[in-house]
Design goal:
The protein has 242 residues and is α/β, with parallel strands linked by helices. The chain has helices at 22-36, 42-49, 54-59, 68-86, 96-105, 118-128, 151-160, 174-182, 214-223, 232-238, and strands spanning 9-12, 109-113, 136-138, 167-171, 186-190, 205-206.
């Protein structure tokens, strides 16, 4: 694929995109809920709220407001549970490295925009040797508002020096897709945990990166030049008490 005069940027989410870890994330939440005496179904919860920082997800499951400090402590407990559960399962989604290498060769800028903190980012990127492919890494501590607010992806694009209209977000979550549209970007849905029908209007729906190339993506961008408008109903539904 020829390098465009002004490069495109690929903005990756981490959980569910670089790695297929949603089952372990859900299990960690479920174990925490058990300890807290909550009956919330973690899989159903993450189906709607995946992409948000863990403390914000946890804030939705309590009937009465919980202090931010306490939510952060619960989030830290959940993180420990998740790391124990996922320790020996850390592996990239099929075809990821080949896609990243091809994107680099095509002249794309590459960024990571996640709701995770730096320790969790390192737990994945450094263990799998993926950090070298990313020009910019943006986590929860780099933005004021998490997804579905556009902060994460706008900050990533700004640090990359690429305008939003030339950015493509790769997301596995409904709220992440909405964050992309709110940022004025297009989106590719990675279906590690959701079906194609769960997303609003992605350029493509892929199960993993096998056979998917930057050339495929460029053709899709040319065919779909307009960024979809965010769907308020989807975001509102995601925030409903579950």
């Amino acid at each position: 694929m020829p390098t465009p005069a002004l490069p495109y940027a690929l903005l990756f989410d981490m959980d569910g995109v670089l790695i297929d870890n949603t089952p372990e994330q859900a299990r960690a939440f479920q174990l925490l809920f058990r300890d807290l005496g909550l009956t919330t179904n973690a899989r159903r919860l993450l189906r709607h709220l995946n992409g948000m920082p863990a403390s914000e997800i946890l804030a939705t499951v309590f009937t009465n407001p919980v202090p931010k400090k306490q939510l952060e402590e619960y989030a830290a407990q959940r993180e420990l549970l998740y790391r124990v559960l996922y320790w020996n399962k850390r592996r990239e989604v099929a075809g990821l490295t080949a896609f990243l290498q091809a994107a680099r060769a095509a002249g794309c800028r590459i960024g990571l925009g996640t709701g995770s903190g730096e320790d969790t980012i390192g737990y994945i990127l450094d263990h799998l040797g993926l950090r070298r492919y990313f020009d910019v890494v943006v986590g929860k501590d780099d933005v004021q508002h998490g997804k579905p607010h556009p902060d994460t992806y706008l900050t990533t694009a700004r640090k990359l020096g690429i305008p939003p209209a030339r950015c493509v977000v790769l997301e596995d979550a409904v709220l992440g897709e909405q964050a992309a549209y709110r940022a004025g970007m297009r989106c590719v849905a990675v279906g590690t945990s959701l079906k194609a029908a769960d997303f609003q209007a992605p350029l493509a729906y892929i199960k993993d990166f096998t056979g998917f190339t930057p050339d495929n993506l460029l053709k899709l961008l040319e065919q779909h030049p307009t960024v979809p408008k965010p769907c308020k109903k989807r975001t509102k539904r995601a925030y409903m008490k579950l």
